Amino acid sequence: MPTDLEEARLTCRFHISWKYSSADGWYVQIVRIIAKLLTDCATTAVENLIPYSLSKTSIFKTNDLLPVKDLKLLVRDYKQIAKDAITILINLSTDKEILESLASDKEFINTLLSKLTKPAEPNANLIAMLLANLAKWDDLKQIITDERPAAPEELSSNNRAIDQLMDLFVKGADGTYNKDADYDYLAYLFADLAKHEEGRKYFLTKQEYDGVVPLTKMTVFTEHKSEIRRKGVASTIKNVAFEIDSHPSFLAEDEINILPYLLLPIMGNEEFDEEDTMAMLPDLQLLPPDKERDSDPTIIQTHVETLMLLTTTREGRDIMREIKVYPIIRETHLKVDHDNMREACERLVQVLMRDEEGEERVDAGIKTLTRKSDKPFSSPKPFSSQSNGVSGGWASQDAEDPASDSDDDKIVDV
């Protein structure tokens, strides 16, 4: 059964089309004016609802979530009405009941995906933001296997939803696919999908349609100008790094080759001893004097925690010692004033300076990092994957420190 909103829309459109067949042109004009007034009224009404979506969620949960169902319809309406409807849904999606209603509605998800892939969609960034919020609902992981109609020719993708999203993220950066969008918030969607085994498998599997491992499409953005994109990419990489069996691929220079993409963002313009410099990765040598490390210490923390995950294997530890990761971590610890980031550095150094069984000290040059802090130091914990379910949307996450309560042994929930 159609809702009241659907009936009103259908009735309005029927009358407009019927009156166009009339010979009375002036009457047609009156009907057009009335239709425009109805649209203007709807535009104002929806716009005025936005503040209530932040402070009075309960009014949208009446009559078995009927207001939410109507808002889903408005997403397909005119540009401004759709924009305000999506904004309201973004705010409401922090409520668990509404989140489930939105994320479990396959038709609604398909509507969002169809609009998102259109190169002229004016609300693409808001749709990406909403999808990022909906990924807090675990069952949205079905998007990893969902098939869709063929992508627009400009996207040059296949018919899988996840591949279309990835290609949007890559090809749409900086407004190159859609002048009104950069798709940065898809990075948050990917980070939450990577909490699941199915998601991590996708990011690590070479895709048939383009012969590329999806994670390698994202690594190039660890130094992107957008903080949102960098943060989401860093969290995605860390979550995928929980696949310990794939660490050889992470470390291999002819495969994912993750280390330069983790180390470059945490490096500044420091000068190192010549011996240390020559042992570092080629991409890390002779950096320009104006090189700056990432301005967000929580992103640096996430990269250091990913390095910590990669020390799970002996190969990972040996490579990091060989390429002189310690001096880089030492300078980062010294220059960045952020307690959680420094704790992550200290945990990593503890592992790198540890004696391997049956060997002498691996690097006599490594010293324990020290600092003054009122915050107690927390010891490393056993690695475990944790999926936190519903924990609020992107707005509250951006306003807080997303890494403030996470250690290097936890799945990142952005």
Structure write-up:
Residues 398-408 have a biased composition (Acidic residues). Residues 357-414 are annotated as: Disordered. Residues 306-360 form the Protein HGH1 C-terminal domain. There is one protein chain. This protein is mainly alpha-helical. It has a domain at 1-92. It has helices at residues 4-19, 25-55, 62-74, 79-92, 96-103, 106-116, 124-134, 161-171, 186-193, 197-204, 214-219, 227-240, 247-251, 259-263, 274-279, 297-310, 314-322, 325-335, 339-352, 394-399. Helix 2 packs parallel to helix 4 (79-92), helix 4 (79-92) runs parallel beside helix 7 (124-134) and helix 6 runs antiparallel to helix 7 (124-134). The two termini are 38 Å apart.
3D shape: elongated
Contiguous uncertain segments of 5+ residues: 4-35, 360-368, 371-392, 398-406
Give the helix tally.
Answer: 20
The overall pLDDT, averaged over residues, is 83
Number of strands: 0
Helical residue percent? Answer: 40-55%
The percentage of residues in β strands lies in under 5%
Kindly, what is the distance between the CA atoms of the first and last residues, rounded to a whole number of angstroms?
A: 38 Å
The radius of gyration computed from the alpha-carbon positions, rounded to a whole number of angstroms, is 25 Å
Structural class: mainly alpha
Task: Note the main sheet.
Answer: none
Return the string of H and E elements. Answer: HHHHHHHHHHHHHHHHHHHH
